[in-house]
Amino acid sequence: MSQDKELTFQEHIAELASRLKITLYTLAASTIIFMALPADLSFLHNPPVFKPLVSVLLTYIRGDILPPSVRLIAGEITTPLELYLLASLTLGVAVSLPVIFYQIYRFIDPALYPEERRMVYPFVFAFMSLFVVGAVFGYKILSPFMIWALLPFFEALQVEAIVYVMDFYTLVFTLVILCGLVFTFPVIFVLLVKFNIVGTEVLTKNRKYVYAGVFVLTALITPDGGPIADAALFLPIVILLEASIVVAKRYEKQRLKEQPAAEIKTTLVKVVKCRYCGAELQHESTFCPKCSRALI
């Protein structure tokens, strides 16, 4: 559809449905491909033996994260099938992410001004980069660290380290995805400051509360890793948030320079309005001068 054409509400809904279909079809196709893609062609000579690529990737993850002293068991007869589907879906989502972000961008693109379109690309690049960095951090650092932090408890209680295979892989997949998303929070904050939705004082004046909330969030993401695992995720997030404050302040200074002095003065003065008639109140008062209703 042309970007210059004004669409009706029904046309917007139809376009949204069309882009959701493309996203779902891409996700379904990529998931099925991972389910059916063989690791090698040996099954052509021995058809009953089919080794999917997903199984090779799961074996690699196990060898990369899990110590040799820990054994994995199925627990239930349907667990291998459930893990097979879960891994295929997770890989399908990872492969489909570019298509998902592109469809989102194409849907909101007509509502953007030219200067806003130019600004989208750096933010998308930063978002994707930080998501990848966070995912790698969750896979390479946080996941092995959480397993390592739990092993001393097995030894202290003289318990053999036998873990359900679904619990292990679910933990790894969850950490990778959540770490990737958490690492993108600074980009979202800078974007909100850029559009003048929030100011940097939201973080600078409430650091202790914000960081307390961040620490609670890291504790929820790493429930089994203890305080050391929480700190391992908490520190890089704090560094990224502090860096985002520096970047966001540049946007604030730039906006203030471009604003006329009269507008700056207006934005700095808090305008209080009557909640009944909307009349502006120049000073604190008990009754509205226009509708005479009590304001308290």
Q: Can you describe what's shown?
A:
- This protein is mainly alpha-helical and 296 residues long.
- The chain folds into three domains: 111 residues, no CATH class; 145 residues, no CATH class; 36 residues.
- It is built from ten helices and four strands; from the N terminus they run ααβααβααααααββ.
- Strands 1-2 form a two-stranded parallel sheet. Strands 3-4 form a two-stranded antiparallel sheet.
- A hairpin with a 6-residue loop joins strand 3 and strand 4.
- The two termini are 51 Å apart.
- 15% of the residues are buried.
- The model has no long low-confidence stretch (mean pLDDT 80).
What would you say about this model in short?
The protein is mainly alpha-helical and 296 residues long. The chain has helices at 9-36, 53-65, 79-108, 114-156, 165-182, 185-194, 201-204, 207-221, 226-258, 261-268, and strands at 71-73, 162-164, 272-273, 280-281.
Assign the structural class, choosing from mainly alpha, mainly beta, alpha/beta, alpha+beta, or little secondary structure.
mainly alpha
Largest sheet geometry: 2 strands, parallel
How many independent structural domains? 3
Q: Tell me, rounded to a whole number, the average pLDDT.
A: 80
Topology as a string of helices (H) and strands (E) = HHEHHEHHHHHHEE
- Per DSSP E runs of 2 or more residues, the count of β-strands stands at 4
Give the strand order, joined by hyphens, for the main sheet.
1-2
- Beta percentage is under 5%
Radius of gyration: 26 Å
First-residue to last-residue Cα separation: 51 Å
Q: Which stretches are low in confidence, meaning pLDDT under 50 for 5 or more residues running?
A: none
Described by its quaternary structure, the protein is: single chain
Helix % is 55-70%
Q: Counting H and I runs of at least 4 residues, what is the number of helices? A: 10
* Mass-distribution shape: globular
